[in-house]
Amino acid sequence: MAMLTRRTLMKGALVAGAYAGGIGLAGNLGGSARAKAATSLAARRTEAMLTEHGPTKGAMTYGDGEVPPVLRLRRGDPFALRLDNRLDEPTTIHWHGLRIDNRMDGVPFLTQPYVYGGDGFDYAFTPPDAGTYWYHPHCNTLTQMGRGLAGVLVVEDPSDPAFDAEIVLNLRDWRLGGDGQFIAQFRPRDAARAGTFGTVRTANWRQSPQYDAPAGGLVRLRLAATDVTRILALSVEGAEATVIARDGNPARERFALDHLMIGPGQRLDLALRMPDAEGTVAVLRDLRGTKPAALASFRAVGASLKRDVRDLPALAANPLPEPDLSAATQIPFILSASAEERPKDGICGSLGYNFWAINKVPWADDSGDPTAPLAEMKAGRTYIFNVENPTPQLHPLHLHGLVFRPMNSNKQAIRPHFSDTYLIQPDEKVQLALVADNPGDWVFHCHIIEHQKTGMTSYVRVT
Ligand code: C2O
Ligand code: CU
Question: Average of pLDDT values for 106-119?
């Protein structure tokens, strides 16, 4: 396994490792303190300071700190990390959004064995694309992610434009009771609907944290929606926020953030132009639902840098294959409800229900009896997934290992971009166009984890 080494702290030469503290406030991109390089990342139990009631027991984290570290990789540089499982149950790591070797994809049964407690697994890959990604388990996922196992992963590109600061926010909820301790992670009747919502909302494991940033400066705000259930509608109040990338990939046309919905699994990169007056505070809000929430805030410090977002150079495009629509093969994917009992077996934690299906097949999960792939694709060819959602719920659909271009929705205007996760609305029909350029078995599932774990999962095979 390759060693992770501490590199120079010059701009663009970044540690392929972890921040020790884990809080994703990187300060100035050029000169922030880079933490010690790590060759292994522990998955372990911890106590978390989430509420005023003192530590929450039975949380799970990655690494040595309280909060899972922001892993910093560099596009085109080999990365290697040993998962050191110190939990008393099996786990794996999935690198959400990264187009890497199928054997590194972290899906038990399909791509790798379980990693039992006390064991480890060596992940090694070279990220082909820059952007904001994240990492999380793919085993007993509702419990493990619900209790904390979800971290942000940043792939930097030496040609990334310079910002005055960078702030990474891991946005998620926790299912805690009034005493600040975990309560049941899900209710079956909610799993059959929108999913079971958390009770405490956090950014980087803090309720509405505030960050300082240079007045009048441009901040790169990297947001990752890592919650198991909640869909957000994001706006920033008190500052201009421009969407510069979605789900890792640069937006082809930038646009002002205004009630943009993102579902679990999705990421958003914003250029936040801080207010000029020292002490002024801008607030990131979720405006969805009956209880709008202030997720985090940003306080202007120092004399105004008087920056203009229009001067910000474009992000370098990732080397993504452009679908050839003239030669595309169409594949239908129809989401549906299902109502089958299923055994509460499975090493990776079956929830005991099938509420959902894709093309009428509820996923057998880790029952040891995997279903056939929903589609077999030939490497290098273009495919169009014709996805229909006749259910009354939204579903953030995530495809591993490949990226697609959403097109032609009957419900929403689509701004051109590449993505790995599409938030489909009720009664929506959408086309996801992609080049099957990465061989392997790739899972396609809803990222509302209760939906994923009760049937709304499948996979496609690229040979
Ligand atoms: Cu982010 Cu299959 O997952
Ligand atoms: Cu869903």
Answer: 94
Any atom of ligand 1 within 6 Å of the Cβ of 96:
yes
Query: Tens digits of per-residue pLDDT, 401-425?
Result: 999 999 999 999 999 899 999 999 9
Calpha distance 407→73 (Å, rounded): 30
Q: Determine the Cα–Cα distance for residues 346 and 364; give it in Å rounded to an integer.
A: 10
Report DSSP letters for 161-198, one per residue: PP-SEEEEEEEEEE-B-TTSSB--S--HHHHTTT-PPP
**How far is ligand 1, taken at its centre, from the CA of residue 195, in Å?**
16
Find out whether the beta carbon of 443 lies less than 6 Å from any atom of ligand 1.
Answer: yes
What percent of the chain is helix, strand and coil (3-state, nearest 5)? 5, 45, 50
What is residue 145's three-state secondary structure?
helix
Ion ligand 2, residue ranges at CB < 5 A: 395, 446, 448, 451
The predicted structure's pLDDT at residue 362: 86
CA–CA gap between residue 453 and residue 202 (Å, rounded): 24
State the ligand closest to the CA atom of 190: 2
Identity of the amino acid at 12: G
Could you tell me if the CB of 267 is within 6 A of ligand 1? Answer: no
Q: Which atom of ligand 1 is nearest to the CA of 138?
A: 2
> Which strand (E) or helix (H) includes residue 204?
none
Q: What is the dihedral of CA 345, 119, 14, 282, to 10 degrees?
A: 40
Which ligand has the nearest atom to the CA of 337? 2
User: 417 CB under 6 A from ligand 1?
Assistant: no
**pLDDT tens digit string along 347-400?**
888 888 889 999 988 887 655 556 789 999 999 999 999 999 999 999 999 999
Q: Which atom of ligand 1 is nearest to the CA of 443?
A: 2
Task: Find residue 284's DSSP bridge partners.
Answer: 236, 296
Grade residue 269 by pLDDT with cuts at 50, 70 and 90. Answer: very high
Q: Which ligand neighbours the alpha carbon of 396 most closely?
A: 2
Residue 253 in this model has a pLDDT that exceeds 90? yes
Range among 29-33, 281-285, 337-341 rated most confident: 281-285
Give the start-end residues of each E strand in 36-164: 40-51, 54-62, 71-74, 79-85, 94-96, 120-125, 131-136, 151-156
Supply the pTM of this predicted model: 0.91
Q: Is 451 in the pocket of ligand 1 (CB under 6 A)?
A: no
For residue 180, give both structure tokens: 């600040």
What does the pLDDT read at residue 36? 41
Q: 167's torsion region: left (phi>0), alpha (psi -120 to 50) or beta?
A: beta
Instruction: Assess whether the C-beta atom of 445 lies below 6 angstroms from ligand 1.
Output: yes
